[in-house]
C-alpha cells in the first residue's frame, strides 16, 4: 500500500510529495525493515521520537510523529500518534475484524476463564477460532506469547489479519480497562461485548472506582449507535452486578442478561456443588436444561452462564453448548488442582483481587474437611489499597493464612507485607517473605482433609523481583514440595 492511500484514512493531514510504498507499520525501531512506516509513540519511559533517525537508517520509508523531525524521509505530523496508529493499522491490515465475529470480554474477574469457555464452545460447533488474552494468543491451534491482557492496536490488527488469513471465523478476546482508556482497541469491530463483574482493582491507575467503572463501560459504548439486521450487536451483562445498569444505559446494542440471584434471560437455578464439580438447571428464554460441570464454585457458574449466553446469541445450538461446557475441566492457573498423590488438596488460583480471593476461599470452605491454608501476597507497583483488604479476607476465611511475596517488582517486599499486616492487627497469621518457603511451610503442615490454596499468580511461570524476572511456577513448586514430603 502506498503512503498516500494509507494516509487518506486520516482527515486534515497534508500528503507529502513523496509517495513511497509502505511494506509494514512499526512502532519499535528495532523491528524496522526496508519500506516501514515508523510510528513515534510517547511511552511512560521511552519517547519513540528519539529513535526516528535510527529507524530511517534501517530503511523506514516515512515517519508518523507528533512534531516535525529532521530526517530525510517524509514526516507526517498528527496530534496523537497512538490514535492515528489505530486508524492506520485497521486500514493497512484491511479491516480484518469486519470479516469475522469478534467477542470482547471485560470485567475484573473471570475474563480468562470465560474467554476459554466461549472458545471451546465455538470449536465444538466446528468454528475456526482465535483467542487473545492474559495467558497467550491463539490462532486455531498456534499459541503466541503475550505481554499484556490486551495488546496495542498495531499488534491487535496485525494479529487479526493473521487470523483472517488462516480463515478464523470467530475471535474471543479479553479487554482490559487500561486498553479501553488508552485506545488500544480502537478499530476493533466487536459483535458481542460481555461483562463478567466489577470489583476493586487497578485503582493505582484509575484512582477511583467510578473511573474504573467508566473505563469498563467504554466497551459497550463502542459497540456503535446504529442498528443493522445483517450485522447486529449484542451486550451480554451480569444482572447480579450493579454496574450492569450503567453499561446498559451507555450501549445501543441489544442487551441480554445472565444471573443467579436476579431475574435474567439466562439463569442458573438449583445449584448443587461437590468437591469434584457441580450441577444446575439452566433457564433460557425458550427452554430449561440440566448442566453438569467438572468446574467448582459459584464464580464458575457465572463464567459458564456468560459463555452460554454468548454462544446462544451467536446461534450455536443449546445441545452443542452444553456438551462442550460439560467437557471442560478447567483453565490453567484458575482453581487448578495440583495432584502428586497427596492426601490433602492443593489448589493454585490467579485470585489477586479482594473479590476473587473471597470467592475462591468461600468455595474452598464448601468442601474443606479440616484446615484451610492460604498462601497469598500482593503485587508491587499496583493498587496498594487492596493489600490490607486481601489480608483481612485471608484471615477471615482461612484457618492458616500465610503472607508472602507475589511479584514485588520495584517495591520492597517487606514494605508490601507491612501494608497487608495493617489490615489484620490482632489476628493470627504467618509471614514468610520467600514465596517458595511459604508454599513449603503450608504443604509440610497439611494433613488429610486439609486444603492448601496458593493464590495470586495462577498460570504465571515467573516472579518479578526488582528488574529481575526469575522462573517460578506455583504449580511446579507445589508439586516438588509434595514429592519431597512423600
Alpha-carbon distance between the two ends = 64 Å
Q: What would you report as the Rg, rounded to the nearest angstrom?
A: 24 Å
Name the average pLDDT.
94
What fraction of residues sit in β-strands?
A: 15-25%
What structural class do helix, strand and pairing data support? alpha/beta
Count of DSSP H/I helices = 16
Characterization of the model:
It is globular and about 75 Å long. It has helices at 3-7, 52-57, 81-92, 111-124, 153-165, 177-182, 203-206, 209-221, 243-250, 298-313, 318-327, 354-365, 386-397, 413-421, 435-445, 474-485; strands at 24-26, 36-39, 62-65, 75-77, 101-106, 129-132, 137-139, 142-144, 170-174, 192-195, 234-238, 254-259, 266-274, 277-283, 288-293, 336-337, 345-349, 372-376, 400-403, 430-431, 451-455, 462-465, 468-471. The mean pLDDT is 94. By secondary structure, it is α/β, with parallel strands linked by helices. Helices cover 34% and strands 21% of the residues. The chain is built from 16 helices and 23 strands.
What distinguishing features does this structure have?
486 residues, alpha/beta, eleven-stranded mixed sheet, six-stranded mixed sheet, 16 helices
Task: Describe how the helices and strands are arranged.
Blueprint: H1 3-7, E1 24-26, E2 36-39, H2 52-57, E3 62-65, E4 75-77, H3 81-92, E5 101-106, H4 111-124, E6 129-132, E7 137-139, E8 142-144, H5 153-165, E9 170-174, H6 177-182, E10 192-195, H7 203-206, H8 209-221, E11 234-238, H9 243-250, E12 254-259, E13 266-274, E14 277-283, E15 288-293, H10 298-313, H11 318-327, E16 336-337, E17 345-349, H12 354-365, E18 372-376, H13 386-397, E19 400-403, H14 413-421, E20 430-431, H15 435-445, E21 451-455, E22 462-465, E23 468-471, H16 474-485
Parallel strand pairs: 1-2, 2-3, 3-4, 5-9, 5-10, 6-9, 10-11, 11-12, 12-13, 17-21, 18-19, 18-21, 19-20
Antiparallel strand pairs: 6-7, 7-8, 13-14, 14-15, 16-17, 22-23
Amino acid at each position: 500500500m502506498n503512503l498516500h492511500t494509507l494516509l487518506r484514512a486520516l482527515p486534515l493531514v497534508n500528503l507529502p510529495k513523496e509517495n513511497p510504498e509502505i511494506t509494514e507499520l512499526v512502532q519499535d525501531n528495532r523491528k524496522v525493515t526496508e519500506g516501514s512506516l515508523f510510528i513515534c509513540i510517547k511511552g511512560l519511559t521511552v519517547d519513540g521520537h528519539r529513535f526516528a533517525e535510527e529507524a530511517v537508517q534501517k530503511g523506514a520509508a516515512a515517519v508518523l510523529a507528533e512534531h516535525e523531525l529532521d530526517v530525510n524521509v517524509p514526516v507526517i505530523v498528527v496530534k496523537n500518534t497512538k490514535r492515528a496508529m489505530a486508524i492506520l493499522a485497521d486500514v493497512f491490515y484491511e479491516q480484518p475484524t469486519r470479516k469475522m465475529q469478534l467477542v470482547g470480554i471485560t470485567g475484573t474477574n473471570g475474563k480468562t476463564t470465560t474467554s476459554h469457555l466461549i472458545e471451546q464452545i465455538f470449536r465444538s460447533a466446528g468454528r475456526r477460532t482465535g483467542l487473545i488474552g492474559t495467558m497467550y494468543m491463539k490462532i486455531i491451534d498456534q499459541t503466541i506469547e503475550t505481554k499484556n491482557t490486551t495488546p496495542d492496536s498495531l499488534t491487535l490488527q496485525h494479529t487479526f489479519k493473521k487470523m483472517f488469513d488462516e480463515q478464523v471465523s470467530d475471535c474471543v478476546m479479553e479487554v482490559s480497562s487500561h486498553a479501553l482508556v488508552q485506545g488500544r482497541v480502537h478499530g476493533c469491530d466487536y459483535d458481542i461485548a460481555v461483562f463478567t463483574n466489577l470489583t476493586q482493582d487497578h485503582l493505582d491507575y484509575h484512582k477511583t472506582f467510578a473511573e474504573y467503572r467508566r473505563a469498563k463501560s467504554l466497551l459497550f459504548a463502542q459497540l456503535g449507535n446504529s442498528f443493522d439486521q445483517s450485522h447486529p450487536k449484542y451486550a451480554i451483562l451480569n444482572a447480579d452486578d450493579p454496574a450492569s445498569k450503567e453499561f446498559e444505559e451507555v450501549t445501543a446494542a441489544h442487551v441480554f442478561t445472565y444471573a443467579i440471584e436476579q431475574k435474567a434471560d439466562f439463569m442458573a437455578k438449583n445449584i448443587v456443588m461437590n468437591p469434584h464439580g457441580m450441577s444446575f438447571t439452566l433457564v433460557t428464554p425458550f427452554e430449561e436444561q440440566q448442566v453438569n460441570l467438572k468446574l467448582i464454585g459459584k464464580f464458575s457458574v457465572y463464567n459458564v452462564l456468560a459463555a452460554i449466553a454468548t454462544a446462544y446469541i451467536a446461534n450455536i445450538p443449546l445441545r452443542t453448548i452444553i456438551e462442550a461446557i460439560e467437557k471442560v475441566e478447567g483453565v490453567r492457573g484458575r482453581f487448578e488442582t495440583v495432584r502428586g498423590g497427596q492426601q490433602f488438596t492443593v489448589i493454585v488460583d490467579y485470585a489477586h483481587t479482594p473479590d476473587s480471593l473471597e470467592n475462591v476461599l468461600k468455595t474452598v470452605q464448601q468442601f474443606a474437611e479440616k484446615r484451610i491454608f492460604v498462601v497469598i501476597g500482593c503485587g508491587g507497583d499496583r493498587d496498594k489499597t487492596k493489600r490490607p483488604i486481601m489480608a483481612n479476607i485471608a484471615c477471615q476465611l482461612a484457618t492458616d493464612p500465610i503472607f508472602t511475596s507475589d511479584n514485588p517488582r520495584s517495591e520492597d517486599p517487606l514494605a508490601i507485607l507491612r501494608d497487608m499486616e495493617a489490615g489484620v492487627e490482632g489476628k493470627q497469621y504467618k509471614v514468610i517473605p520467600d514465596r517458595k518457603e511459604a508454599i513449603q511451610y503450608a504443604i509440610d503442615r497439611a494433613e488429610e482433609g486439609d486444603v492448601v490454596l496458593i493464590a495470586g499468580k495462577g498460570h504465571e511461570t515467573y516472579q518479578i523481583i526488582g528488574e529481575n524476572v526469575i522462573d517460578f511456577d506455583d504449580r511446579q513448586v507445589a508439586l516438588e514440595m509434595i514429592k519431597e514430603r512423600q
